[in-house]
Specification:
single chain, mainly alpha, 2 domains
Length: about 170
């Protein structure tokens, strides 16, 4: 029996595998801990270091190897799920198809994360103001320019008037 006070020493291979899983789990510590079997506190400690400094350079080779193995395995699982989906399409219930399609989507996301690719598509749409809105905006802008010019002119007149009084 292992004493509660004994510490587990993690080798570079385990750290690299945990890093790859952490990335594949979208940096979710609890999920990474569950998948790898590394205690939550240990993964949280490592993740804090990885967030701050990135993974240690001496793990680069191990990380590449683990990432390749992970992506290879995930591709096989995704292919199996897609094959099963194709097999079930003719007479499957919607629930079955939905569950397998979800597996395909999850595996695709994990593969993309491990490869450093985006998992979401973000679209930004810019709309220009309508002709009426533009007229209103320009009218307001012109009014503010006129008001600013009038204020400046009145300030100049006041300053000139006060300087004339001082010089007399």
């Amino acid at each position: 029996m292992v004493s509660r006070n004994e510490r587990t020493e993690w080798d570079d291979g385990a750290r690299a595998a945990t890093y790859v899983q952490w990335i594949a789990c979208n940096k979710r510590i609890r999920e990474t801990s569950r998948v790898t079997g590394v205690p939550h506190a240990t993964v949280a400690y490592w993740a804090k270091q990885w967030e701050k400094d990135g993974p240690p350079e001496h793990l680069d080779g191990e990380i590449r190897k683990n990432a390749y193995e992970f992506v290879d395995h995930a591709n096989k699982v995704r292919k199996q799920a897609m094959d099963k989906l194709e097999e079930l399409i003719p007479d499957a219930e919607v629930k079955q198809l939905s569950a397998i399609a979800t597996v395909v989507g999850i595996m695709d996301d994990k593969i993309r994360l491990a490869q450093g690719l985006a998992t979401k598509r973000t679209e930004t749409v810019h709309t220009l103001p309508t002709k009426e809105e533009m007229k209103e905006l320009m009218s307001g802008f012109a009014d503010s320019l006129v008001n600013a010019a009038e204020d400046r002119a009145s300030e100049v007149v006041e300053i000139e008037a006060s300087s004339v009084v001082v010089n007399k």
